[in-house]
Model the fold of this input.
Amino acid sequence: MAAGITIRLAEAADAARLNAALRALSDDLGDTHGASDADIAAAGFGPDPSFRAVLALRGEDVVGVAVFSPIYSTTRASAGVFVSDLWVAASARGARLGPRLLAAVRDAAAARAGCGFIRLAVYADNPRAVTFYERMGFEARSGEVGMILSGAALGDIGGTA
Done:
């Protein structure tokens, strides 16, 4: 149930609890979780944060989290956010906490730089998640292919290869 749940921006003191929630998300998805508490603290709460996060708390227990980063779209001529992680604990599912977390993301982004859109990626083999997002009005982008560059290839950009 959503009763007694508060949502607020994560702070530096929340890094370990935030990472525990993100580890639970990784476990739920069968993903590898490489981030340490120190990684989360540095990336989210250091001098030049890579992300922000909102926490859903029942008392002191984290029952939901959304991690987001600012983006800008020239085609939309608008600032927005990319939600990289959204997780709700099994004990809080079915209480519309996911939409509340996304609303908190929207509001936090709007307070800083405006928020004309929210973008995210969802695993194609997770139909429950796809349906969840579609019910809120998210639309799949046809004609796009998600791509990532990392590791040695990232280091080789601009090289002679």
Observations:
- The chain has a mean pLDDT of 93.
- The first strand starts at residue 5 and ends at 9.
- Helices lie at 15-29, 37-45, 97-113, 127-136, 151-155.
- The chain has one domain: 5-155.
